[in-house]
Structure formats: structure tokens, C-alpha cells
Amino acid sequence: MTLYSLHGARPEPLPFRITLPNGFTRTDPSTFTEDEIHAAGFTGPYVSPPYDPAIEQLGWVDGAYVVEPLPPPPPEPLWVDFSAAVMTDSSVNTMLGTLLQSAPGLYGGLVVGLQQASQGDTRVFLNSWQAAQGLNVISAELITDVQQLATAHDLPSEFVDALVSISSR
Asked: What's CA 75's distance to the chain center, in Å?
């Protein structure tokens, strides 16, 4: 397939219609001449170089194709390890002890939510976490500790960001 670049953009097949400098348009790419193509602002033709999409990616940088290795995949989130780390954290246990006495339903929400988070569903944990913050039983230090644990266990940035946004309300 013949590819052309318009104004330095990644090459693509020619469009159905091109506009020439005199304002006339031409349709049907099979009839365009090279002079018309270049007059319409296209450069090329370009040929995509061979590459192995299993281990490489094709880029377009400064008017040329580049073949680069694929970036490494993101690390797998360690939800179960995060859950275990949170449940053995003394500050978390102090907070949970307070909740068990004053708000047992919220205590249960955090514990169940943490179990569900270990399976990738963070909604109950984050809702319970926000409610506990509303009761002022979560200190700023505990918030920072849990955020650090989440980051250390490669949890998704959406989850870490949700902890940050909840704590800043």
C-alpha cells in the first residue's frame, strides 16, 4: 500500500479528495499524478519498514519511520499482598479497632471492601474509606501510609489517585 504524509503527520493512504494550490479539487486517488499529490502538500510515497509487532512498535518521528522495542508491560498489581500489608499495619488495626466500637458496619465495609479490592473491585473499600475519613478516624499519616503501600504493591494509579482525591476533600 502506498502511503503519504500530510504536513509531517504519520503516513496514510491518500484521501479520496485533494485540493490543489489553484483551489481545484481532484477526486479518485488512482488518477492523481505525483506532481498533484506533492502540490496538495503531501510527501512520499513511504513504505512501512518490516517489524515484528510481537516485540516491536512502529513509530513516526521527524518525518521518518522508526522501529522500537515494545515497552515492558506494566507490573501486575499485587492486590492480595497489598491487602495483607494493610491488614497487618498497626495504624490500620488501631483505626479498625476504633471503628469496630463506634461504627461496626463501617468496619465491616472496610474489611469486606479490602477483600473485594484484592480481587480488583475497589468500590466498597473506597466508599468505606471515604466514610471513615468523614468520621475523622483516619489520620493524614495513615492516608499517606496506605497510599505508599498501594504504590509499593503496583496498584493501578486510578486506585492510588482515588485515595489521594478522597483524602483531599
From this structure: 13
Confirm whether pTM is higher than 0.85.
no
* C-alpha dist (Å) from residue 138 to 97, 109, 112, 129, 166: 12, 15, 18, 8, 12
> 93-100: which pairs have CB atoms within 8 A and are 24 or more residues apart?
95/132, 95/137, 95/138, 95/139, 95/142, 98/137, 99/132, 99/135, 99/137
Q: Hey, where are the domains in the chain?
A: 3-69, 79-167
Query: 42-64: per-residue pLDDT in tens?
Result: 999 999 999 999 999 999 999 99
